[in-house]
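Subject: complex prediction, re-run

Hi both,

The earlier run crashed halfway through, so I resubmitted it with identical inputs.
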Amino acid sequence: MTDWESLRARAREVCAKAYAPYSGYPVGAAGLVDDGRVVAGCNVENAGYGVALCAECGLVSELVAGGGGRLVAVACVNRLGEAILPCGRCRQLLWEHGGAALEVDTPLGIQTMAQLLPQAFGPEALDHIREA
Ligand code: THU
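This time it finished cleanly. Structure:
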């Protein structure tokens, strides 16, 4: 059972650390791992605008560097502490580490990755070809 309030609180905390001088749009993301760990990240922008790292990139990096595991719940927030939707690229990142059942806090309530990224391209597409 996910404690959404503490996940949102962690996302708000890390949002305050964001480096977003170019967009002025700090983001914080926090994720619950299937072993109970909470991993988090903030966006990190760059003078080369195109190489900005989204908050979810930092979250996934902490997940993998901390030993891996499956994400079961993710909350992303803006500076006002409101739930925001992961961008398209980050939906793909989250899919890899949580799959269809991963739950995401959205402005429309809790939704699964299956809802946020229908007909996703995932690892099984590569397995399918490898095994053919
Ligand atoms: N951003 C994220 O960190 N995550 C998202 O899912 C949406 C966008 C960041 C990227 C950029 O630093 C800022 O928000 C404005 O796009």
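The chain has one domain: 4-131.

- K.
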